């Protein structure tokens, strides 16, 4: 079963159950770190498999450990479980019944594929030398950092699995993320930075309120805030290397109560993204310098709060090469693509592969009746993920694990 035809065939045999599970999760999406219904669905799907299951306490996370018949490496496979606060407008038969919540980023498929991989690999347990740790993780969206919570709770603190009884580490980690803007079944990754860091900024400008007819008698924070927003964009284009990019996006400006009152305070909120630690730090320094300098020039005061979110998702070079090689053997060279540059989205799997050599992988899932270049993207209220991609994801999870585990 280690050959590509065997794995793909076995994954397709599981396909109906995997699709059914995705549809059920899609109907009942949950937000954040606590996804009790989703966790119960995962546990029900894993019931009867030879897995040591650990329920995490600080989140709805589930860790399920498959131990082979002989000692060997340990491979972590991850699927995230949470949804987004979004009203669904797809018209799909399995559309969300939890109004205002939608699986708009494919996490329902990630969870279903990981369950499928657990079933497939459990059937090979007696042949495996090593272990597979299945990480079912809530709280990836909206900065909840579910991966960090699971790590802090001891996800990687595994019991020994060696002849001498010594402590055992996780040797490799992989995650698959569905992409509705790539052809179904296409496997995409790259060595080095794959996804950006994502940090939040809040800039509070305080002036002095007054009457709209007498701005000279007040200190209007709104034009100061607007000048800061414009200057941050100039800072990015003139202080950040275009070949080591960064982005500052202001998503919200709030000030005032009515038309004829100059407010006391204006608040600017947004995000900063980078694909290297150096540029990430330059953005932090630049935003603070610009905001404080402009506020001082106008005689206003300013508070700059920069919250650290997810770090850059940096694929270990050897692990990314493993993905490209294994996927080529599994699917053929035409179904594998090495991304030339990182994307500017962010992922909390970055916390895992800061501690374990590993790689994140994109898997195309554009429905056959849509053009992947114009299809609705993840986080859209109209995004649709093609179920035909799911067996490929199951087989790829299994193939990556088997690459590290001796079989026989």
Can you walk through the features of this model?
The structure is a single chain. With 408 residues, this protein is of the alpha+beta class. It folds into 2 domains: 4-195 and 313-407, 3-Layer(aba) Sandwich (Aminopeptidase); 197-310, Alpha-Beta Plaits (2-Layer Sandwich), CATH 3.30.70. Helices cover 33% and strands 27% of the residues. It contains 10 helices and 17 strands. Strands 1, 2, 3, 4, 5, 6, 15, 16 and 17 form a 9-stranded mixed beta sheet that branches. Strands 10-12-8-13 form a 4-stranded antiparallel beta sheet, covered by helices on one side. It has a two-stranded antiparallel sheet with strand order 7-14. α1 (4-13) crosses α10, α4 crosses α10 (390-404) and α8 (317-331) packs across α10 (390-404). The longest helix is centred in the last third of the chain and has 22 residues, at 277-298. The radius of gyration is 24 Å and the shape is elongated.
Radius of gyration: 24 Å
Sum up the overall morphology in one term.
elongated
SSE series: HHHEEEHEHEEEEEHEEEHEEHEHEHE
Instruction: Give the % helix.
Output: 25-40%
Overall number of strands: 17
Number of domains: 2
CATH topology of the largest domain: Aminopeptidase
Question: What oligomeric state is this?
Answer: single chain
At the first level of CATH, the class of the largest domain is Alpha Beta
Count of DSSP H/I helices? 10
Q: What percentage of amino acids are in beta strands?
A: 25-35%
Q: Which regions contain 5 or more consecutive residues with pLDDT less than 50?
A: none
The CATH homologous superfamily of the largest domain is termed Zn peptidases
């Amino acid at each position: 079963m280690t050959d590509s035809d065997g794995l793909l065939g076995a994954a397709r045999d599981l396909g109906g159950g995997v699709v059914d599970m995705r549809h059920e999760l899609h109907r009942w999406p949950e937000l954040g770190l606590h996804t009790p219904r989703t966790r119960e669905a995962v546990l029900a799907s894993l019931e009867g498999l030879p897995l040591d299951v650990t329920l995490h306490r600080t989140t709805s996370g589930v860790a399920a450990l498959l131990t082979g018949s002989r000692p060997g490496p340990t491979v972590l496979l991850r699927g995230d479980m949470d949804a987004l606060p979004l009203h669904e407008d797809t018209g799909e038969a399995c559309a969300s019944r939890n109004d205002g919540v939608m699986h708009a980023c494919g996490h329902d498929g990630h969870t279903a594929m990981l369950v499928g991989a657990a079933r497939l690999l459990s059937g090979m347990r007696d042949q495996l030398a090593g272990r597979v740790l299945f990480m079912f993780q809530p709280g990836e969206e909206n900065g909840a950092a579910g991966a960090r919570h699971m790590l802090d709770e001891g996800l990687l603190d595994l019991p020994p699995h060696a002849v001498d009884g010594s402590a055992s580490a996780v040797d490799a980690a992989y995650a698959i993320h569905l992409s509705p803007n790539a052809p179904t079944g296409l496997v995409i990754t790259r060595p080095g930075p794959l996804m950006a860091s994502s940090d939040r900024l809040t800039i509070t400008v305080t002036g002095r309120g007054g009457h709209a007819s007498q701005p000279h008698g007040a200190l209007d924070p709104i034009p100061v805030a607007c000048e800061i927003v414009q200057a941050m964009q100039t800072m990015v284009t003139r202080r950040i290397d275009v070949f080591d990019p960064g982005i500052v996006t202001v998503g919200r400006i709030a000030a005032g109560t009515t038309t004829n009152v100059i407010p006391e305070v204006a608040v600017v909120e947004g995000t900063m993204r980078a694909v290297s630690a150096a540029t990430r730090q330059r953005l932090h320094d630049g935003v603070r310098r610009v905001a404080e300098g402009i506020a001082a020039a106008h005689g206003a005061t300013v508070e700059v709060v920069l919250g650290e979110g997810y770090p850059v998702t940096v694929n270990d070079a050897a692990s990314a090469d493993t993905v490209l090689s294994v996927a080529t053997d599994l699917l053929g060279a035409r179904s594998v693509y090495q991304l030339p540059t990182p994307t500017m989205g962010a992922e909390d799997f970055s916390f895992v592969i800061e501690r374990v050599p590993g790689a994140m992988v994109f898997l195309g899932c554009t429905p056959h009746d849509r053009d992947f270049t114009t299809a609705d993207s993840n986080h859209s209220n109209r995004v649709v993920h093609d179920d035909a991609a799911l067996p490929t994801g199951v087989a790829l999870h299994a193939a990556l694990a088997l690459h590290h585990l001796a079989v026989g």
